[in-house]
């Protein structure tokens, strides 16, 4: 039962080439740049991002389970812009600026909802689900010239992939499929379209959005900021860089960090993970090193018991480990067979030293009381897990604990403290090691946009 996890750098889980788990070769041209820290706090860099980055990329705007029926809508806020994502009567998912063409007022005022048509609260202009104009209030009082183009909602290019909805503001990005740098099947295998949002928290953090991305793109900080993870998580992750700024780290879960001397006795977290997998830790035959494989075996059996066919597409490692997947530029998804954990880092409308951290937890509901929500989701008990009631977005202002769990609480403090430091005259720019390759890869791609090479 013993597993072959060999924690040495570079970390390689040993999957064969061509497997979705396979270690990708480190690019030769990754370089040793030390970037100018001004990117983390200046208005100038923020302005450049609005000119050369945000309009050109595909932005993750929502998930298809939030727009199941025609008329369902969900809002996506990015800086000063806000978009309505909806499903039309013909079943197409479309995106519009959440702006009335009459006077510019916001049309939808709730994060999610369901309507027959969109109606502006200001003067009750109405729009069809396909964005076309339905009704102008007191139309006879408008000069016909002014409205002869029948002003409707302004559409934004929108495409979906494997349950994820993306928008492209300037409309000129390559097709979404070609733009996503991940191999075919990588996202599809999780069947995100069959999951439901079970929690959504949007908290404001006191840092640049990239300070946030950087912090979540490595596990190098785990032993120091999150020492409690050492008993159940390896902090040498397998780091993989994909085209177009995409990346992944596989964080082995169920094992003790190689830094922990005692690799025999069970850590309390390991015991809890075993229990969750249906194995009595008291009766567990094996050492700490055998836990990950035992959980994988139990989950494999569980997948078969509940006819979760998509589990068969997953490697054993995928059943326990976190495949933290970076979607350039501002999203990371922690991918697990039971559900996914979307982190989206969106810029503040005006302040380069604030961002919004969207946390969207999705769960694949199985109608059986023995199929429970994994503890790592940290789901409040009152939240519906069946997909019937979409939980409201919990908005949390800066400086208030978003209550996302102990590990994320530690990150909130850390990220604000890094933001303070990077502004100092004494700081000459980040020095990234190979464990931080994903950050380097992300900034290299970002620079291609900023320098208008893309
Ligand atoms: Fe962290």
| Assigned CATH superfamily of the largest domain | Naphthalene 1,2-dioxygenase Alpha Subunit, Chain A, domain 1
How many helices in DSSP terms? 9
How would a crystallographer describe the biggest sheet? 8 strands, mixed
Helix and strand sequence: HEEEEEEEEEEHEHHEEHHHEEEEEHH
How would you describe the overall organization of this protein?
This protein folds into 2 domains: 28-56 and 182-450, Naphthalene 1,2-dioxygenase Alpha Subunit, Chain A, domain 1 (Alpha-Beta Complex), CATH 3.90.380.10; 59-179, Rieske [2Fe-2S] iron-sulphur domain (Rieske Iron-sulfur Protein, 3-layer Sandwich). 19% of the residues lie in helices and 21% in strands. It has helices at residues 43-53, 176-179, 209-216, 222-225, 268-276, 291-305, 316-320, 406-422, 437-450, and strands at residues 59-63, 72-78, 81-87, 93-97, 112-114, 118-119, 126-127, 133-135, 155-161, 164-168, 196-205, 238-241, 247-251, 322-327, 331-335, 339-347, 355-363, 394-396. The relative contact order is 0.17. The protein binds fe (ii) ion (FE2). The site of fe (ii) ion has 5 residues, from loops. Fe (ii) ion is lined by residues 215, 221, 225-226, 411.
């Amino acid at each position: 039962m013993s597993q072959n996890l060999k924690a040495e750098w570079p970390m390689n889980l040993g999957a064969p080439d061509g497997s979705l788990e396979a270690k990708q070769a480190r690019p030769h041209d990754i370089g040793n740049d030390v970037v100018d820290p001004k990117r983390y706090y200046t208005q100038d860099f923020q302005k450049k991002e609005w000119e050369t980055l945000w309009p050109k990329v595909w932005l993750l705007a929502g998930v298809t389970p939030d727009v199941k029926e025609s008329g369902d809508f969900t809002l996506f806020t990015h800086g000063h812009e806000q978009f309505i994502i909806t499903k039309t009567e013909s079943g197409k998912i479309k995106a519009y600026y959440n702006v009335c063409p009459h006077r510019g007022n916001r049309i939808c005022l709730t994060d999610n909802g369901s309507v027959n048509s969109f109606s502006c609260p200001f003067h009750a202009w109405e729009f069809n689900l396909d964005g076309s104009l339905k009704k102008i209030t007191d139309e006879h009082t408008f000069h016909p010239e002014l409205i002869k183009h029948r002003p409707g909602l302004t559409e934004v290019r929108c495409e979906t992939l494997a349950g994820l909805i993306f928008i492209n503001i300037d409309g000129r990005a390559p097709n979404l499929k070609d733009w996503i740098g991940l191999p075919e099947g990588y996202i599809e295998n999780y069947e995100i379209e069959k999951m439901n949002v079970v929690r959504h928290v949007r908290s404001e953090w006191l840092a640049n959005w990239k300070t946030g991305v950087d912090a979540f793109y490595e596990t190098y900080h785990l032993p120091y900021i999150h020492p409690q993870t050492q008993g159940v998580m390896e902090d040498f992750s397998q780091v993989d860089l994909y085209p177009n700024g995409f990346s992944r780290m596989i964080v082995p879960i169920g094992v003790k960090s190689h830094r922990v001397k005692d690799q025999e006795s069970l850590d309390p977290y390991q015991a809890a993970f075993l229990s969750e997998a249906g194995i009595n830790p008291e009766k567990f035959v094996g050492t700490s090193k055998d836990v990950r494989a035992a959980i994988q075996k139990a989950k494999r059996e569980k997948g078969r018991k509940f006819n979760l066919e998509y589990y068969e597409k997953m490697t054993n490692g995928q059943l326990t480990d976190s495949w933290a997947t970076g979607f350039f530029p501002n999203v990371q998804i922690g991918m697990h067979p039971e559900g996914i954990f979307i982190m989206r880092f969106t810029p503040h409308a005006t302040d380069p030293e604030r961002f919004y951290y969207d946390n969207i937890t999705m769960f694949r509901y199985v109608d059986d009381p023995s199929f429970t929500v994994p503890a790592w989701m940290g789901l409040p008990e009152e939240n519906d897990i069946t997909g019937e009631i979409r939980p409201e977005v919990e908005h949390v202002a800066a400086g208030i604990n978003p209550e996302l769990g102990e590990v994320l609480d530690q990150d909130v403090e850390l990220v604000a403290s890094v933001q303070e430091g990077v502004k100092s005259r004494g700081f000459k720019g980040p020095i990234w090691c190979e464990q931080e390759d994903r950050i380097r890869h992300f900034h290299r791609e970002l620079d291609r946009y900023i320098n208008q090479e893309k």
